[in-house]
Amino acid sequence: MQFESRVFKLPKDVDYPDQDQDSCRLDGPRGIAAIADGVSSGIFSRLWAGILTEATVADLPDPENQDAFGRWLTLRREVWASQIDPTRLSWFQKPKLREGAFSTLLWVRLLPDHESRQPGSCRLRCFAVGDSCLFHVREGKLLRTFPIQRAAELEANPIVIGSVDLNRDQYLQFKSFDEPCLRGDLLVLCTDAVADWALRLQESG
Question: Residue 198 carries which DSSP code?
Answer without folding.
Answer: H
